[in-house]
Amino acid sequence: MAPLLNIVELSHNFGGLCAVTDFFLTVQEGESVGLIGPNGAGKTTIFNLITGVFRVFEGRIFFQGQDITEWPSHRITAAGIARTFQNIRLFKDLNALDNVRLGAFARHRYSLWNAFFRLPAFRGEEGTWVRRAYELLERFNIAHYAQTPARHLPYGEQRRLEIARALISGPRLLLLDEPAAGMNEGEVEGLIHLIREIKQEFSLTILLIEHQMQVVSSLCQRVTVLDFGLTIAAGPLREIQQNPRVMEAYLGKEAPLDR
C-alpha cells in the first residue's frame, strides 16, 4: 500500500546552519507517528516544510501519491493536511467561533466578487461554515465560548480551539506540534483521550511532535528521533527507548526515555 505521506531526502538550511539533513519518512493512512528529539533538532522545521511555510530546496514531499513539494500552503491545506502550532496561534481578539470558521479558508469556493458584495453564493456557503464551526465547538465542549475572544479562554481550552480550527478544513493528515506543552497532568490525560477519539471519529492520520513521552507512548505506533537535524533512530518506541544514542541526545545519559 502506498503511504499517505512520503518524504524523501529532505534537507533545509538557514544560512550556514543545517536544520534538517537527508530526512526520510513514510506515514501510512491511519497511523499515528511521533517525531521526537531535543529542542532545535529540526522537528518543527519539518512541519513547516510539509505545510509550505518554508520553501523546499532539497528533497521531495508526496501526499496521497502527489508531489506537493512546491505547492503553496493554502493548496496543501485544501488537499487534506492541517496542523497546530507549538506556540498557540489563535486570532486572540476574534471570538472562538470566528477562529474556527477561519480555518476553512482553503475550502471556500465563492469568488472575491461574491464576498465583496455579499451575494447569495457567499451568504449560503458562509452559513454552512458557521454551522460547522459551531458543531466543532460543541464537539470539543467549548461552545459556551463561541462569542468569547480567544485570549480569554483558559490555556487548555485554547489548545482545544486550535485543534478544532485545524479540523474544520477536513484533513486526512493532522500535524500536532507539541499539543501537550504547558498542560498539567490532568490536562495531558484529557488530551490523550481527545486525540484518540478524534483520530477515530474523523478518520485521521497523525504526525505528532511531543516532548512528553506519556503522550508519545500512548498515541504513537512508532517514532523517529532527530538530533541536530539528523535521524538517529526510527521504529517502535520500545525498541529505541534503550538506544544509548537516543538517551544521550534526547534526555541525557542518566535519564530514562519514558520518565
UniProtKB/TrEMBL annotation:
Gene3D superfamilies: P-loop containing nucleotide triphosphate hydrolases (3.40.50.300). SUPFAM superfamilies: P-loop containing nucleoside triphosphate hydrolases. Residues 5-253 form the ABC transporter domain. One of its GO terms (cellular component) is plasma membrane. One of its GO terms (molecular function) is ATP hydrolysis activity. Keywords: ATP-binding, Nucleotide-binding, Transport. InterPro entries: AAA+_ATPase (IPR003593), ABC_AA/LPS_Transport (IPR051120), ABC_transporter-like_ATP-bd (IPR003439), BCA_ABC_TP_C (IPR032823), P-loop_NTPase (IPR027417). This is ABC transporter ATP-binding protein.
